[in-house]
Amino acid sequence: MRQRIRHWLWLGWFAALWGVAPVVYAATTPSTITVVMDNNYPPYTFLDAEGHLQGILKDTWDLWSKHTGIAVNIEAMDWSQAQAQMAAGRADVIDTIFVTPERRKHYDFSAPYADIDVSIFFNRKISGIVDADSLRGFTVGVKAGDACIDTLQQHHITSLKSYPSYEAMIDAAAREDVVVFCIDKPPAMYFLYKKGLSQRFNYTRPLSVGQFHWAVRLGNTQLKQIIAAGFAQITASERQQIHEKWLGSALTNGLSVMTTRGIIEALLVVLGVIGCLAFWNWSLQLRVEAKTAEQAAAQKIIEEQNMRFSMASDAAGLGFWDYDPYSGRIEWDDWMYRIYHREREQYANPTELWENATHPEDRAQKTQNLNEAILGVREFDTEYRILLPDGAIHHVKSLASAIRDTNGQAIRLFGITFDVTKERRAEQRQLQLVNQLTRINDELNSFAYVASHDLKSPLRGIDQLATWITEDLGDTLSEDTRNYLRLMRSRINRMEMLLDDLLTYSRVGRISDDVVTVNTHELVQAAFDLTASGGKQIVLHLADDMPVLQTRKVPLELVFRNLIGNAIKHHDKKQGIIEVSANPVENGIEFAVKDDGPGVPLEHQQRIFAMFQTLKPRDEVEGSGIGLALVKKAVESVGGKVTLESDGQHGCTFRFTWPTVIPEEQST
Q1: Is the peptide bond before 101 cis (omega within 30 degrees of 0)?
Q2: Using an 8 Å Cβ cutoff, are 504 and 452 in contact?
Q3: What whole-number distance in Å separates Cα of residue 143 and Cα of residue 182?
Q4: DSSP state of 22
Q5: CA torsion sign, 132 to 134 to 137 to 140?
Q6: Helix (H, G, I), strand (E, B) or coil at 320
Q7: Distance between CA atoms of 116 and 206, rounded to whole angstroms?
Q8: pLDDT at residue 515, rounded to an integer
Q9: 361 secondary structure, DSSP code
Q10: Residue 605 vs residues 102, 401, 416, 614, 640: alpha-carbon distances, Å
Q11: Beta 160-163 vs 140-143: how paired, if at all?
């Protein structure tokens, strides 16, 4: 409406100025003029379905030609091409042009004949676009040669993408090739509604208000006067007809033909409407009050949640920061200053502190990680050291996520930082303890091997001496002496067995072997076959469903060999049975080794898994007293558990669990 009023005011002024003026320069009046203009600026100029030019300006120039008798050659094209044609001297007049300081150097302009709002249109998915300055970080669509380009550049908006026409630019916006664009409002509304896109875009208040002019080349005053005189001959009625054709007609009032009765009826209707509006206003007020109460309650909840979040972040010692990739500036909250042991009053702008307080050896890596996060290579997740004012060094960890525009460019990084010094010191202490423990284990392993080897050497010498004595003295030895020598050699064998078992015990859980496929049926049978029966007739009963495992063979074989050997060695009869079975349990297999021997008295069941414990004197049953201790240590080294079931009179059942699969890195 403002544009139409502005248009008619200009026409009235123009008619008053030129209506009384004589047509001059008749002697030099041209027979034809060429006018260039934008070919796609509804409703002023646009093409019909057959590609013919139509619109307000087409009809106006046709009237001008009719009144002046001068033929008008209208060439409508992309706006940038129209300006190029005029600049090259291939046209006499350019229309649909705004005045800019640069254009005043080349053109002599007419008075304005229409006010045009120029706005920023943007996809409704985006918020925060209010003016030219808020466009920083976005690529803005513009029409090639448009005056809007100068306006944006004055605000230092230089990331622009040009299109040959407004329609091409709106088509690109529909595809989201560009989500923000600068455009004159009349063609924008026309194309958005025509293409069904009006609900997908919002627009700002006018970025600027341009004015349509026609113009001739600077200094061509005669042609300007001829054109102006021709427009003055167009009557107001003719102009009104053109505008009603393209802009439509206003609704007539109708009150002038209404009867008195009709007026009264209309007033009654108005009063009824007023009453309805009053009632509606009252009900609306009640709803507003209720909504206000809801919002107040919601605001209270938000404030409580913010308070809880603040308390949680304070308890966790989280510092929050906001980084601007364009300016390189960073903002800190109070906890960031606490982490860095600085006062906010001394560092209102912490950007320089963030860099200088970083340990010199960590600066390059932190900067690289930050740049990669800005480029989208990876999230910002880094740990680095900082220097405190007293010279102490702390470890901190920082995490951040980037906020990006529609082109994927980072416009903000929001992050947190927290102190991990205690954790790193604990890890360092743990590593020291692990190294120390590894060293001690290596020393123990070496000691056990050396002790076993060095102690066996004199034992073998004593055994050899006893053998020589027996062979040399022969029949001269008394029976008591012979018994002493046999007892001595038995003690030597027991000592060697003890040393071997001690060495094996020290290695369980520290010496690893490969994980292989183990058929436990074959493994148990082989262990039984290798175990001396001591002259007893012991039968092995193996369950048919013994499993096949992926495990370490040596420790499992050690467990079965000791349990089977223990059952045979302590059996109190010449004949006996050993039963071995397996049942699946959670995360493993439970094996059972059962015998029909004398059992283990209840009072001894708590100590049989300790080292050097035997139920009978070693002169009666040869053994080191370490066998069951070896079983317990081997089972527990893979995460299993071993138990004993016995009533103390009728046999024993040893049960132990073994994992189905042992990880390669687990040591046995």
Answers
A1: no
A2: no
A3: 8
A4: P
A5: negative
A6: strand
A7: 9
A8: 84
A9: T
A10: 106, 62, 58, 11, 19
A11: parallel
Q: Where are the beta strands (DSSP E) in 586-624?
A: 588-595
Question: Which residue, 140, 133, 134, is CA-closest to 159?
Answer: 140
Check the CA dihedral 516-522-527-530 and report its sign: negative
The CA distance from 11 to 31, in Å, is 25
Q: What is the Cα 529 distance to its own chain's centre? A: 62
| Secondary structure tally for the chain: helices H, strands E | 17, 24
What is the SS3 string spanning 80-136? HHHHHHHHCCCCCEEEEECCCCCHHHCEEECCCCEEEEEEEEEECCCCCCCCHHHHC
Q: List the Cα angle 200/202/208 in 5-degree steps.
A: 145
Tens-digit pLDDT profile for residues 275-301: 888 888 887 888 888 877 777 776 667
d(CA 626, CA 566) in angstroms, rounded, equals 11
Give yes or no for a contact between 50 and 10, defined as CB atoms under 8 angstroms apart.
no
pLDDT band at 116 (very low <50, low <70, confident <90, very high): very high
Q: Are 180 and 407 contacting, i.e. CB atoms less than 8 angstroms apart?
A: no
The two beta strands, 410-419 and 380-387, are: unpaired
**Residue pair 38/45 in contact by the 8 Å Cβ criterion:** yes
Backbone angles phi, psi at 429, to 5 degrees: -65, -40
Tens of pLDDT along 134-167? Answer: 898 899 999 999 999 999 999 999 999 999 999 9
**pLDDT tens digits for range 333-360:** 889 999 999 988 888 788 888 889 999 9
Burial class (CB in 10 A: 0-12, 13-18, 19+), 60: buried
74 Rama sector, left if φ>0, alpha if ψ -120 to 50, beta otherwise = beta
Sign of CA dihedral 537, 538, 541, 542: negative
H or E element, residue 542 = strand 537-542
Amino acid identity, position 9? L
Enter the tokens of residue 667. 């040591």
> Contact at 8 Å (CB) between 654 and 563?
yes
Spatial separation of the C-alpha atoms in residues 205 and 310, rounded to whole Å? 38
Report the candidate in 405, 330, 402, 324 with the shortest Cα–Cα distance to residue 128.
Answer: 405
Backbone angles phi, psi at 612, to 5 degrees: 65, 30
First to last CA, the chain: 90
The encoded tokens of residue 466 equal 């006893």
Angle at 29 between CA 24 and CA 31, to 5 degrees: 150
Which 3 state secondary structure label does DSSP give 161? Answer: strand
534: Cβ contacts below 8 Å, ≥ 6 apart: 568, 569
Distance CA 664, CA 600 (A): 37
Could you please report the per-residue DSSP string of 363-420? Answer: HHHHHHHHHHHHHTSS-EEEEEEEE-TTS-EEEEEEEEEEEE-TTS-EEEEEEEEEE-
Residue with tokens 């194309």: 191
Which residues, in sequence order, are CB contacts of 41 under 8 Å at separation 6+? 55, 96, 166, 184, 186, 187
The pTM is what?
0.37
Max intra-chain CA distance, the chain: 168
pLDDT band with cut points at 50, 70 and 90 for residue 243: confident
With contact defined as beta carbons under 8 Å apart, do 540 and 531 qualify? no
